[in-house]
Amino acid sequence: MANRPLDLPLAYWESNLEELDAEIARLSMLCNISILEPGVVQRVLQNDAAVCRTDNPVAFAKLRALLMMHLAIREKSVDVFGQAATVRVEDFVIERLKQRFGQLLGG
């Protein structure tokens, strides 16, 4: 992404989302969930622990809470930066997480 004065707040959001998503990835691995597979995020948000291949209620509860937080941050990001900028940030963060965690996330 180009560094323009307006990008500084966007870079801050990007950094925060990357940290949040890294923790989501870590918790997904603890629960043995392929978080990027279609429908998995929705099942976690609906509190469907059956999506876990490893029983870890504490990690699942944290994962669900962080996914809800991620959605709230995304909603605020759209309000502040617009849909297109938010999608660019999300795509960038997801790509970096795929590079970092590989197939462990599924998808």
Protein model, in words:
The chain has four helices and no strands. Helix 1 (7-31) packs antiparallel against helix 3, helix 1 crosses helix 4 and helix 3 (57-81) runs antiparallel to helix 4 (83-101). The chain is mostly helical and 107 residues long. The longest helix has 25 residues, at 7-31. It has one domain (9-102). It is globular.
Topology overview:
Layout: H1 7-31, H2 40-45, H3 57-81, H4 83-101
Helix pairs in contact: 1-3, 1-4, 3-4
The chain-level mean pLDDT equals 84
Give the percentage of residues in beta strands: under 5%
Spans where pLDDT lies below 50 across 5 or more residues: 1-6
> Mind telling me the C-alpha Rg?
14 Å
Number of individual domains: 1
The termini sit apart by 24 Å
How many distinct helices? Answer: 4
Structural class determined from secondary elements: mainly alpha
Write down how many β-strands occur, each being a DSSP E stretch of 2 or more residues: 0
H-E order: HHHH
State the shape: globular
Helix content: over 70%
Biggest sheet details: none
Summarize the structure.
This protein has helices at residues 7-31, 40-45, 57-81, 83-101.
Q: What tags apply to this protein structure?
A:
globular, 4 helices, 107 residues
